[in-house]
Amino acid sequence: MLTFIAKYQKMVKGIVNQYPNHHILIFGRPGAGKGALADVFAETGFVHVGIGKLIRKHLRENTSISKRFDSELSDKLIVPDALASDMVLPELQQIVEEQSSLFVLEGYPATQGQYAAFKGFIDSNDVKLVVIILDVTEKEAEQRLLSRKTCPHCHRTYSSSEEKCLQCGISLYIREDDQLHLIQERQALFVKETCPLSDQFQSAFPCILEHP
Ligand SMILES: [Zn+2]
Description:
The chain has nine helices and seven strands. By secondary structure, the chain is an alpha/beta fold. Helix 1 (about 1-20) crosses helix 2, helix 5 (about 80-100) packs parallel to helix 6 (about 110-125) and helix 7 packs antiparallel against helix 8. Bound molecules: zinc ion (ZN).
């Protein structure tokens, strides 16, 4: 785990040096390590914007958006386009307007519809963005997810060797959706809905390919 984090820290340092003052988008299949890499960016001052994080935030704060979850989110593996964009884009807008920090975004856009909304936001706000593509095979991702443990408090994820969260000191658990049949379903959805965006990213933004 520590070597894994050290590797990510080195990666982040290199990217920040190469692309100063750029916002970051992390792209990759479920289990590629997007959230863990975003956490490392956050440690250097980036604001971590993730779809899972936002869902928890709206639930916690009982916002008007959270009232749409029952009808729009139930048993969906990909957050529907309008709901996803309504959560993510205002967050990004605020960060871009305040100009005091950069965002690191992961888990969005996940479909063509979300990409169109995101690209519109980027273009109209003249946002400097670099895309990190985490390239792992389906088998590797499957293995990572099967052995992944999550902290119930801060939602950091760990490999199976850890028992307790290094930050909170409390016991980790295995998420209900980290079961083989659900993992395979999410991988198939990624291939169908999200993977095609990779070509669009590569023609629109500077991209960095990483094999974590
Ligand atoms: Zn924790």
